[in-house]
Amino acid sequence: MADQTALEEADIGGKADRAVVRDALGVGVAVGLSGFAFGVTSAGSGLTLLQTCALSLLVFTGASQFALVGALAAGGSPFTAAAGAFFLGVRNAFYGLRLSQLLALPRVVRPFAAQWVIDETAAVTLAQPTRRAARLGFLVTGLSLYILWNLTTLLGALGAEAIGDTDAWGLDAAGPAVFLALLAPMLKTGTERAVAALAVLLGLGLLPVLPAGVPVLLAALAAPLVLWADGRRKGQGAAR
């Protein structure tokens, strides 16, 4: 009886692991393919093949990479382009705070794992019910996405000349679209949705009047503005 129970538990565990791997690979492959769009867009903005590949290898956060090359392509200064990309990438630090507790990786592994703390790995990892499943999801998503993203970045940069005008294809929208698709289900409260809506309004509304890269920086003001307004509203409600 004990042996049968152990076999049943092992079978259930094996099925659960396969489900995690399947989901993680699905995310890794689907998002990794958009690295081709980044490679083409980056090459079209004037970056060299080496610079384009270095961004994917070292930065490895799609939305920030697209923001950087998009600002450069629009004529923005390297400083504002890098600053906008930096502020978009800051979100990964907050993912890291949660994932470090959930994964509880050995200290020697953490600096390497930090490279894979992005939207996609966070989404897959946080969806898992156990630490074992979370670690497996993080590993498979991070590994598959890192390899495929960098490979398709290289192919995209090499094929940029054959593609021609990247603006006509709208490839620069691929990365932000993936980011928004992952972000949308996480906006569960009214405050979170208000921050997102105000950030969009600031970012898009200021595009015609400010240099490239600056609207992204100012969109970051959405969070403190909404939190301040929400705190004031609650304070007035408590006073009544």
Main sheet summary: none
Q: What number is the mean pLDDT? A: 81
Q: What characteristic shape results from the CA principal axes?
A: flat
What's the helical proportion of residues? over 70%
Class by SSE composition: mainly alpha
The proportion of residues in beta strands is under 5%
Beta strand count: 0
Q: Give me the oligomer status.
A: single chain
Subcellular location: Cell membrane
Transmembrane segments: 24-41, 136-157, 169-187, 194-227
InterPro entries: Brnchd-chn_aa_trnsp_permease
Main location: membrane
What does this structure look like?
This protein is an all-alpha fold and 240 residues long. The chain contains 15 helices and no strands. It has helices at residues 2-32, 35-44, 49-59, 62-73, 78-89, 91-103, 110-113, 119-126, 131-158, 160-163, 166-169, 174-183, 190-205, 214-219, 222-239. Helix 3 (49-59) runs antiparallel to helix 9 and helix 4 (62-73) runs antiparallel to helix 5 (78-89). The longest helix is centred in the N-terminal third of the chain and has 31 residues, at 2-32. It starts with a helix and ends with a helix.
